């Protein structure tokens, strides 16, 4: 269990981590999500005792990482962003060194080295110099190193960066496997990665924790707005008239297109799917719908919303994202973004 | 500590550095043994060390440059920081590994007096105490090299800083003797040293205010002392440079005196630099 209280880290004038507090419970895979430069690596370096904090407290199983560093570090296995490997050693030599440096007895060392090599699948390359190993294998050796000493908590900083898709899948499977016996914290700036393996997500932006919940709850929290976008052969007035006749639609935005077409955007907070109602309403009035697409709020939107959030213009980023998305799918003119802008 | 020592020691012999260093020491020792003892026809092995300073001038920077600079360059220092081990043990492990590399050729040299004793009368005590003093001198210089290596992630910069420091220590007394013996010359020379110290502090802490603050404080103290006891400053710089010259101390041993104060000086230098190295590494955690 990790307790972080009011953690602040300043580099000169720049505040990398601002008043961060959270608790990590045992036996869960935590995802630390944030854009580049959000303070993920800084936080992880502080949690593992590689960096000091300007203010605040970090307790690892009750041991203060600053006061009682050695006991605290025994509970943690850490894989930094760049695996700290001595390239002139073989994985076996390297793991023996780390096991010894972590203070394991000879018998423990032999058992655990065999075990972690098996778990990470590096037995085949155990006797090759690490400078000849691929990035994927180096990453595995880095994870194997973190597992030595059987620490309760495994901290992995961007474990899949720079790997090919196959390796990413393998590393993810490995992390899921680790999650069964360890508390795992991994950081990433890739949302799909975190949502694939983690059962709890912490989103960090500009050094502050902006959201922390299960992936499902996070989606639910921001759920409830769906946007329906239409291209119709009709006028703005007609689109608005139809909007008034359907309860589910809260707001309407229109922009004239070419050849008597109009781009329409309906927003709704209703739970139900109102696409059929819209379709029949238009059919009744004999207005052709040329294109229709609906967009629900996804985890991606949550991520973008909380990390880019400008407190004065809360909705803007999501909308821009929606528009960008639909621009791709519907091949609409680029100005569609401007519609959202006007509304905001 | 054992693990760090073992890895570090082995890594010297995984790369060419360890072999080159050992060969370098043995080559020069061999040349001077032949020149002084065999051609000169004297059995005093200690005289060889009178010529061996050159080995340290070049050898020490090569030996110590990679110590921490390489770790930092390849980001393996993160592993060291995350280990459940105190920083003192890490520094000592690395330092002892370098001493072990240094000790290897010197252990070989320990056989030489025995061989020479077949051909003449060797003063064993003087010979072995000279080897011991030569080892301590090397140990003191290595501790300095280790400190410089902990300041940077570039091995070449570490080597150059060590080389400059070793050269200054070696030639310091000779250079100081060129200065006029006046009190003002001494004062100016000390001021330059303080300026360098200020620059180094500023560089380490990456803080202009701290560096210039240290310079101003030290310079203030120096000026105060100078104004207070101007007479004491006469040729003081030369005396200080002679006293702190680590190489000079070696000659006392070669001349047949086991100089305890020299041993204490060497040990003090080692303790100071091991401590500074540790602080420099801890400091990086705080940056």
Walk me through the structure.
The complex is a heterodimer of chains A (344) and B (287). Chain A is an alpha/beta fold and 344 residues long. Chain A is 39% helix and 27% strand. Chain A has helices spanning 40-47, 69-74, 91-101, 106-120, 135-147, 165-178, 191-197, 215-222, 236-245, 275-284, 299-308, 316-330, 336-343, and strands spanning 2-11, 14-24, 29-33, 55-60, 63-64, 76-79, 153-157, 183-188, 200-205, 208-213, 226-233, 249-256, 261-268, 289-296. The longest helix of chain A is centred in the N-terminal third of the chain and has 15 residues, at 106-120. The radius of gyration of chain A is 25 Å and the shape is elongated. By secondary structure, chain B is mostly helical. Chain B has a domain at 2-160 and 249-286. In chain B, helix 2 (17-39) runs antiparallel to helix 3, helix 3 packs antiparallel against helix 9 and helix 6 (87-109) packs antiparallel against helix 14. At the A-B interface, helix 2 and helix 3 of A face helix 1 and helix 5 of B.
How is this fold's topology laid out?
The complex is a heterodimer of chains A (344) and B (287).
Chain A: E1 2-11, E2 14-24, E3 29-33, H1 40-47, E4 55-60, E5 63-64, H2 69-74, E6 76-79, H3 91-101, H4 106-120, H5 135-147, E7 153-157, H6 165-178, E8 183-188, H7 191-197, E9 200-205, E10 208-213, H8 215-222, E11 226-233, H9 236-245, E12 249-256, E13 261-268, H10 275-284, E14 289-296, H11 299-308, H12 316-330, H13 336-343
Parallel strand pairs in A: 3-8, 3-9, 6-7, 7-8
Antiparallel strand pairs in A: 1-2, 1-4, 4-5, 9-10, 11-13, 11-14, 12-13
Chain B: H1 2-14, H2 17-39, H3 53-64, H4 66-73, H5 77-82, H6 87-109, H7 111-116, H8 124-149, H9 155-176, H10 183-205, H11 208-228, H12 236-244, H13 246-254, H14 260-286
């Amino acid at each position: 269990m990790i307790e972080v209280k009011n953690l602040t880290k300043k580099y000169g004038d720049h505040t990398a981590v601002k008043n961060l507090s959270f608790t990590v419970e045992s036996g869960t895979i935590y995802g630390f999500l944030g854009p580049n430069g959000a303070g993920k690596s800084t936080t992880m370096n502080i949690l593992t005792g590689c960096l000091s904090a300007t203010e605040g407290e970090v307790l690892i199983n009750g041991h203060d990482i600053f006061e009682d560093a050695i006991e605290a570090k025994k509970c943690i296995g850490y894989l930094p962003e760049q695996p700290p490997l001595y390239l002139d050693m073989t994985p076996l030599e390297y793991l023996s060194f780390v096991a010894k440096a972590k203070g394991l007895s000879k018998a423990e060392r032999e058992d655990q080295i065999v075990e972690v090599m098996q778990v990470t699948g590096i037995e085949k390359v155990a006797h090759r110099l690490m400078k000849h190993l691929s990035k994927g294998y180096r990453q595995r050796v880095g994870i194997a190193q973190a597992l030595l000493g059987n620490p309760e908590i495994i901290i992995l900083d961007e474990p899949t960066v720079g790997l090919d898709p196959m390796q990413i899948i393998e590393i993810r499977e490995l992390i899921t496997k680790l999650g069964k016996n360890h508390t795992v914290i991994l950081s990433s700036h890739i949302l799909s990665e975190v949502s694939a393996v983690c059962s709890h997500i912490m989103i960090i932006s500009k050094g502050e924790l902006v959201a922390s919940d299960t992936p499902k709850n996070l989606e639910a929290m921001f759920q409830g707005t769906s946007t329906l976008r239409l291209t119709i052969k009709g006028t703005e007035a007609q689109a608005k008239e139809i909007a008034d006749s359907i309860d589910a639609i809260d707001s309407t935005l229109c922009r004239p297109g070419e050849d008597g077409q109009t781009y329409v955007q309906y927003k709704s907070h209703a739970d139900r799917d109102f696409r059929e109602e819209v379709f029949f309403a238009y059919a009744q009035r004999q207005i052709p719908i040329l294109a229709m697409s609906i967009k629900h709020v996804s985890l991606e939107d949550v991520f973008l919303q909380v990390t880019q959030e400008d407190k004065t213009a809360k909705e803007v980023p999501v909308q821009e994202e929606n528009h960008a998305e639909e621009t791709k799918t519907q091949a609409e003119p680029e100005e569609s973004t401007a519609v959202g802008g006007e509304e905001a | 500590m054992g693990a760090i020592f073992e890895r570090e020691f082995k890594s010297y012999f995984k790369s060419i550095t360890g072999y080159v260093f050992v060969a370098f020491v043995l080559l020069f020792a061999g040349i001077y043994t032949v020149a002084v003892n065999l051609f000169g026809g004297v059995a005093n092995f200690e005289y060889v060390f009178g010529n061996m300073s050159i080995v340290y001038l070049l050898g020490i920077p090569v030996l110590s440059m990679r110590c921490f600079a390489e770790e930092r360059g390849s980001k393996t220092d993160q592993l060291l920081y995350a280990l459940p081990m105190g920083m003192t043990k890490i520094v000592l492990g690395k330092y002892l590994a370098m001493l072990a590399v240094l000790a290897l050729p010197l252990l070989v040299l320990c056989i030489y007096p025995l061989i020479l004793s077949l051909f003449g009368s060797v003063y064993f005590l003087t010979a072995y105490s000279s080897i011991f003093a030569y080892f301590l001198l090397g140990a003191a210089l290595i501790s300095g090299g280790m400190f410089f290596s902990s300041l940077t992630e570039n091995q070449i910069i570490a080597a150059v800083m060590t080389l400059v420091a070793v050269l200054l220590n070696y030639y310091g007394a000779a250079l100081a003797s060129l200065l006029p013996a006046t009190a003002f010359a001494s004062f100016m020379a000390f001021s330059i040293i303080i300026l360098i110290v200020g620059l180094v502090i500023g560089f380490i802490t990456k803080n202009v205010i701290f560096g210039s603050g240290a310079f101003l404080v030290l310079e203030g103290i120096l000026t105060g002392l100078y104004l207070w006891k101007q007479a004491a400053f006469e040729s003081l710089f030369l005396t200080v440079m002679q006293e702190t010259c680590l190489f000079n101390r070696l000659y006392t041993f070669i001349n047949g005196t086991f100089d305890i104060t020299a041993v204490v000086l060497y040990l003090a230098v080692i303790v100071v630099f091991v401590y500074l190295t540790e602080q420099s590494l801890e400091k990086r955690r705080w940056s």
